[in-house]
Amino acid sequence: MQLKHLRTVLQAENGIAKISAIAWAPNNNKLAVCTSDRVVHLFDENGEKRDKFSTKPVDAKYGKKSYVVKGLAFSPDSTKIAVGQTDNIVFVYKIGEEWGDKKVICNKFPQSSAVTCLIWLTEGPIVIGQLDGKVRAANVKFNKSQTLYTTDSLVVSLAANSRGTGFLSGHLDGTIVRYCVSDDGSMEKQGRVVTHPVPPYALAWPVGHTVAAGCDLRVAVYNREGQIAKQFDYSRDEKEKEFTVACCSPSGQAVMVGSFDRVRVFSWSPRKSMWEENEPREIQHLYSITALGWKRDGSRVAVGTLCGAVELFESVLRRTVWKNKFEMTYVGPSQVLVKPLAPGSRGVILKSQYGYEIEDVRIMGHDNYLVARTSETLLLGDLQRNLLSEVLWPNSGHHEKFYFDNPNVCLIFNAGELSLVEYGDNEILGSVRTEFMNPHQISVRLNERKQNSAEDNKKLAYLLDLKTICILDLVFGVTVAQLTHDSKIDWLELNETGHKLLFRDKKMRLTLLDIIKGQKISILTYCTFVQWVVGSDVVVAQSRNNLCVWYNIDVPEQVTLITIKGDVVDVVRADGKTEAVVQEGSHQLGYELDEGLVEFGTAIHDNDLGRAVTFLETLGDKPEAEGMWTNLASIALELNKLHVAERCYAALGDVSRTHYLRRTIEIGNKYAEENDGDFMGCPDVWARLAILNNRLKDAEAVYLEQNQLNEAITMYCNLHKWEEALSLAEMKGFSNYDQLREKHMQWLLDTNQEEKAGEMKEHEGDYNAAFNLYLKANLPSRASRLLQSNYEMLENEEMVYKVVTALVRSEMYEQAGELFERVNQSEKAFDCYRKGNVFSKAIELARYVSPAEVVRLEEEWGDYLVSNKQLDAAINHYIEAGKTMKALDAAVGARQWKKAVQIIKVIDDPTTVVNHYRQIAQHFASIKEYNTAEKLFLQAEMYEDAIDMYNQAGEWDKAHFLASQYLDTERVSQMYLAQAQNLEQQGKLKEAEKLYISVTEPDAAISMYKKNRQYDQMMRLVSQYHPDLLQTTHLRLAQEMEAEGNFKAAEQHFLNAEEWKSAINMYRAADMWEDAYRVAKSHGGAQAANQVAYLWAKSLGGESAVKLLSKFNLLEISIDYACENYQFEFAFDLARSAMKSKMPDIHYKYAMALEDDGKFKEAEEQFILAGKPREAVLMYVHNQDWPNAQRVAEKHEPESVTEVLQGEAKEAFKRENYQRFESLLLRAQKADLIIKQYKDAGMWVDALRVCKEFLPSHLTTLQADYEREVGVKGSHDASTLLTAANNWEQSGDYKAAIDCLIKVTNANTNDSSLLIKAWTQAADLTNRYLEGAEAVEVVKILGPRLAEVGQHTAAAQLYIGADMIKEAIDIFIEAEEWGKAKKVAQELEPRYESYVENRYKESLRREGRADQLADVDIIGALDLLSEQGQWMKCLDTARQHGPNVLHKYVALYATQLIKEEQPFQALELYTKYDAPPFSQNYNIYKRIAIDIFNLTGLSSPDSYAQWAELRNMLLQLTESMKTSSDAGSSVHDEFNILLVISHYYASRCAYKGVESLDELVAKLSISLLRHTDIIPADKGYYEAGVDARAIGKESEAFVFLNHYLDICEAIEESNPDMLDYSDFSATDFPMEIPLPTSLHLSPAQHEEVKEWVLAVSMDQKVDQVLPVDDRMLYPASLSSGSGQSAPTCVISGYPIMSVRGRNPVEFKRVGMLANREDWNKVMMAVKMAPESHITDVINFISQWCGGVPMFSFQ
């Protein structure tokens, strides 16, 4: 965590002025500071002082200095401040919500002892620590305080937990006590936590720990049980002083501790699960810190000091910015401040309640919601309402999709599961499985309109499948309803109470479901819009041109219709009115609904029935009123509001119910008066209400409970429930039962219920009376049955006649026929049967009466059965009638397929029944009777159908046989490839393989098996068809198996690939040594197995390794192998454990290895341990470490001392340290070796000296050798030559000395210093003693030699001495000593000055030193910079030398960028350095513009800046050309056209960001088609078509996109003659265009265009030609009928047309015009979005066209 100092809130005083307390308000808006003068200062969150107030003593008589403030705390609502004072009192001041509100004391809590500290818990009371050790709680609401607990030691500190539910108290004796005031689900053990060694003046309660510090300079962290978890000790830090105060961050994951001049911050790391100290913040002269306050959002800390200073620090981990809209401030691992960057906006505090580290925060849902993640949870928030939720959400791969359409709940889709999280709730509200993620197919309602009960009402409606809706009660987790519809559902929504559901299907039918009643009703067809009105049950929908409003959805047939012209887009309810917003063309109109009717539903919902009645009375006779009165009456009765119900029924005109209720109320009131109670307590009232609600059994029960049988029977009689009355009378033994029966009969007759009366008479045996009653009731069938059951009555012809006549009149022919048959009248019976379609009885009777009619009756019977959809029954009748085709149709229609086969076989001409063959065959194919189906297909010559049948059945052999027999080979291959791919997708791999193989595509089968991980099948095919790739395939599969952890399979493939070593390595990496050993032994032999065993043992180590190697008898071998591989530790371990005899050998090998690594000290120890000290001596000798070599030799190997001295002497001689050389050999008593060495080295003088001094007996012999040696080798030895030269010089023969020195060359010495010495000495002698030709000869030899060895100055001096000036200058040039070269030329030979200058320039250019070159040759320097690619430096340098120089190199750089296909960078150059009207630059400007025109992906609003940059550059160029010689030329016109094109592109990008300008976007795209000879033609026509389609101009879109396809085809064929411009005859678009070299669109976009064009070409509704205007030209065409061109609109590119007398907008520049309608649209868009790119477009037009007219919007 970083502490950044923000500002000083209060300046320090000169003396002690202790800040006694600091507190932040919970709402983060206020900071309170109490100073030493007992004044509380109030600051805003930025540290600006806004208010203050003085505290008061407990009694004014004691004076202001009688107390000290010890504690300061804000109330949870931030409107009060508690002040704890040492004069035994706590005051609570009400400070208000606004700055400057009056400060008044609202609570006083006197205490028995001085207050020492104070806090105010967010979930509890004020907690007070006292001098006497008591800890008390003060309740502001009740103005009472109580003691929580008592201790024997004064309270020095109090600290609350981050949740505000508990606190810690620290006492003088070190005791720390934990106390909780409310249960928050994570309560910790209460009571004494720990006893700290010193008084814990600095005390904090972070999450899960306790932090205490004091005067012992230690910060202790205790866990929940009071055990020390971490301690930070600063007792040895001399600068540290005692810790005075501590505070905890709001997240509970950081603690700040104050001391002298320093604050320390300790942070909890969730990942490491430990406390860490951050870098301490040291501030000189801050003095002791006396108060700390951490802002509740965790972003700032206020620090108060002993001298009265208050410093404000920012405390953050890091900051990020989200899309330049929100700032994310991470104030702790688990706490983030999310704040909008817009001024005046307030942010939210995002905090993980579990303490997890917040990893990712995103703002979503139109910037109104946030989503954050931790490792285990998901955090969601509503930024507008500051509602945050955290739910457990283990890592799911971050594939969730979030939907924020519902303001109360977030919808989360993940892997087919929908989860709902209610904002502000930390539990997942519910989860369901669904695949449909469209928010329009999901509806959630959460307590949006509370019902009568106080229970939660939370409902979810979603789709199980596209035809099934499920409604879930989220409170109880049960399914409330499940509905299956007959069509796919595309929209659904619950009402706010969750009791009704509206849904619409794909057929645009709107259906209402009453969830409580389970009733479904279709209420509208062709529904294009539907919505519930907010806060009511009113429904608004649209059907064609009708706006439909249901003010009472309980009566859906009562709908209010309003005729509209456009489309409803929204329903808005605000400011006391409700409007349906309708889009009519480019305008939106509001249709106001009857707010009174809408309000009625709200009143009903609120149970304010009186208000509902008052409202309905204002409606009068409106059609909606009746349903509302009915609804209100039902609700009133349900709630027993009888007066309201009476008023409702009166309004409905229901006099009976009104009278009934009034009488009921009177009965109730009378009962209430008599019994002094409520009238609803009257039994008669309850009975009457039950009757009114048709609950007669309930009313009967009430009467019987009151022993009122007569009233119960009377009730049934009055309601004409005679059966119930008789049943009750019979059951209760009613005395007047018989009279009751008679009354019943009479009532039946009086009410014309003859059938019922007849049944009673028939039951009583009075048949004649029953017969007459049946006829009277027009029930002849009952009379006929009665007649036929009574033989006596059947003989009565009159009765029979009456019955027959009545039956025929009622068209009851069958019963009439039966009656005629009973009386033996067969002809009449036959006619009746025929008329009544009773063919069975008619045919049966016809066989006896008229046999010739049987066949015709059979056909009629069949026709009749078919008309009644009884097709199966009709088949046999048609067959009996000989109607084969009808029988076949009936059999097929009845799905009697076997009968159909039998019938179709008898039809001679199969071509007449081809469709029947297909239907029948398809049926048998569906039931897998393929042979029958095949025969039928083949009989009808439907070969492809038969083949498809076998393909679908998976019988590929049969299908292939038929295909080969009846289809061509290419067709068969295409069919089977497509079929194989389909089978592969279905998972039928074997069948797919057969097909692939059958069409010789084994690679496709191999790929299929690999994709489906069936590697055995894959390898089978590879071995069969690609044996050369078998090993490679095995190896690749093995590697994939290994990566997946499938080691056994990987091993098998490694072995098959003959890569057994890879299998071993795989098992080693996986620590599967037994398998590795097994593979090595079985495939690699004994050596490989031994190596694996060794590695296995090494991985085990210790005794396990010894046992393993002993088991394999490899111990000694492994020790040697370990040594060979430098694994000596392992070798030592093995040897120590089992083979100690090998130790010396290992030490020796280890020493050798250490010696090779240069670790000589360690090697020495190992040599000695190995018993080989001589090896150590030799090691040091070899490395010339002579002191150590001598030390080891003297200590361990004395006989080697002489050898060491000789070796060191030899090395000293090589270094020419001859004194040391002689000393060492004399110590070794080897004077003869000294002489020999000098002699061998040719150092005869030294040899003679030593010999004379130490071996005088050998002096004579040595002198003789010297004289002989000098004579022979003098010419070959450099030392000899030097000696000779010295001798010649001493003798004065300088020429001879010089000759000797010249002879010293590389041939006789490799010592460069010796050469330099000899040649320098020769040069010195030459300069001093030689002259003339002799000197020149020597100079010519010595000069080059001295230059060669770097002695340039000596060489130059030599040349100058010989008067060879140019050679001297060349020597200095070669040495790059240009100053010396110039000086020599100036002083000795001025004619060489230019020569030196030119050589200097060439050197600078060759070495790329442009800076130095610029001082002497600016053009050369610029050329050099351009060659080096340092263009910015080149241009900056060139700018200093005028525009001509500058633009030369700008052009060069731009040309390079164009070649590198970076036109935008080239454009930026001319934007930065201007584009001058230089004719040599014109091609560059054109190339930049055309390259940019050819780029893709520049049509979005984000591309505006690039187009604007090109446009502005071209404007600046064309304006500059007006003052040049090219003014008005064709080149000038070309650039004006390029300017227009770039202006169109830029304007189109700007307009695309505004919805109201879509038409202008299309116009600009179409106008660009006039320039398809410049811009890519395929790109132009594609963009014009797409933009035209976007605004509904499908005819134009079709023509443009169809021409685009033609252009693409011409590009592919490289043939422009393929293009047909007949569709563009009415346009001024170019007919001859250059074909682009490549296609502009991607293949996917190209295919999408092709599909759309094809679809539209099939649509007859779309005119496939361009429209024309009054000019008979296309509206975008500039060419008029007279051949002249119309002026162009600078806004849209369309021609200027005066409409209805409206003149175009004219600009100051002549000829620059704009269509007024287009201009007004753009200006309105500027007004609506002043910060958009359109403002810049207007500014450009003002600059281009000479000013914007004054009447436009600015």
Automatic annotation (TrEMBL):
Q: What is its main location?
A: other
Which GO cellular component terms are attached? axoneme; ciliary basal body; intraciliary transport particle B
IFT80/172/WDR35 TPR domain span: 628-762
**Any one GO biological process:** intraciliary transport
Keyword list (alphabetical) reads: Cell projection, Cilium, Developmental protein, Repeat, TPR repeat, WD repeat
What residues does the IF140/IFT172/WDR19 TPR domain cover? Answer: 965-1249
Tree of life domain = Eukaryota
Q: Which family does it belong to?
A: Belongs to the IFT172 family.
Q: What is this protein called?
A: Intraflagellar transport protein 172 homolog
Originating species: Gryllus longicercus
